[in-house]
Amino acid sequence: VPVFPWHSLVPFLAPTQSD
Amino acid sequence: PPPPSNTVVPPSLPPYFIKGSIIQLADGELKRVEDLKTEDFIQSAEISSELKIDSSTVERIEGSHTSPNFAVVQFSVGEHRAQVSVEVLVEYPFFVFGQGWSSCCPDRTTQLLELPCTKLSVGDVCISLTLKNLR
């Protein structure tokens, strides 16, 4: 049975360019 | 000036959203995807040395111009309220703080993944991730 890390379920939404 | 609007296209529906999928939290605990709670994400991020959780508020949901199977969700991300648009399958689930899995088309999510899901709405605050050392 595959086990997936918790963070794979959460999208990265921060923009690549900040401020 | 405000940061540019970014459009991110995630891959098609990943297998870990299927009901019964086993998810490992940062402390090693295993949970089924449908049993995850807001605290699981917050505590895992606290343990993590690289990741932190951002609040992403849904500002707008539109149908995609490219395919009826897709929706464009616009988020206001983090304390700087950066505008980010994400094009996703309408059944793609996001985790809403204090509420759980939500998608643009919860009926389809439940049908395809058997994942219990509510309707994603404008004003919902979703969990998203940032790299801690980004800034």
Offer a quick outline of the entry.
Chain A has 19 residues and is an all-beta fold. Chain A has no helices and 1 strand.
Number of strands of chain A: 1
- Give the proportion of residues in helices of chain B: 10-25%
- Largest interface, C-beta closer than 8 angstroms, per-chain residues: A-B, 19 and 44 residues
Average pLDDT score of chain A: 84
What are the low-pLDDT stretches of chain B, counting only 5+ consecutive residues below 50? none
Structural class of chain A: mainly beta
Shape of chain A: rod-shaped
The SSE string of chain A, one letter per element, is E
Q: What's the helix count of chain A?
A: 0
Query: What is the strand content of chain A?
Result: 15-25%
Number of strands of chain B: 10
How many helices of chain B? The count is: 2
Largest sheet of chain A: none
Round the mean pLDDT of chain B to the nearest integer and report it.
90
Low-confidence stretches of chain A: none
From the spread of the alpha carbons, the general shape of chain B counts as: globular
Multimeric status of the protein: heterodimer
As a percent range, the share of strand residues of chain B is: 35-45%
Secondary-structure element pattern of chain B, one letter each: EEEHEEEEEHEE
Kindly, what is the distance between the CA atoms of the first and last residues of chain B, rounded to a whole number of angstroms?
A: 18 Å
The value of Rg of chain A in angstroms is: 13 Å
